[in-house]
Amino acid sequence: MGGNMDAAQDIVFTISESVDYAGVALLMGKVEAFIDQCESRVQLRFTDIEVNNSLLVAMMMSWYRRAELAEKEITFHNLPLGLQKIIEISGLNGTLPIESL
């Protein structure tokens, strides 16, 4: 997990490991620090993770709220199919800003 540069020169934080309850605090802290350091635009990209519960959706909502309170735009990219389905079933597909990158 970490940040890198994409073609548009925006910093993107990549989440590349599946999240379980043991790793929540560490990932939350890393992403919150990333959100705090971004000037106005926050981009989170998901790669090579498996999702089988709603834990990550709850984390995404927390990150969304943190960015919104800081008046920063946040976008989630490349969500795995399982995560997309949980978001849709939860009724959050119109709330969370999701895009393909």
Structure in words:
With 101 residues, this protein is α/β, with parallel strands linked by helices. The chain has a domain of 61 residues. The protein is built from three helices and five strands; from the N terminus they run ββαβαβαβ. Helix 1 runs parallel beside helix 2. The longest helix is centred in the middle third of the chain and has 15 residues. It is globular and about 30 Å long. The two termini are 17 Å apart. The N terminus is likely disordered.
How much is the average pLDDT? 86
- Read across the widest sheet, the strand sequence of neighbours is 1-2-3-4-5
Distance between the termini: 17 Å
Largest sheet: 5 strands, mixed
Oligomeric category: single chain
- How are helices and strands ordered from N to C? EEHEHEHE
Portion in strands: 15-25%
**Number of E-state strands:** 5
CA-based gyration radius: 13 Å
- Helix/strand-derived category reads alpha/beta
User: Helix tally?
Assistant: 3
Query: Which stretches are low in confidence, meaning pLDDT under 50 for 5 or more residues running?
Result: 3-9
Helix content: 25-40%
| Backbone shape | globular
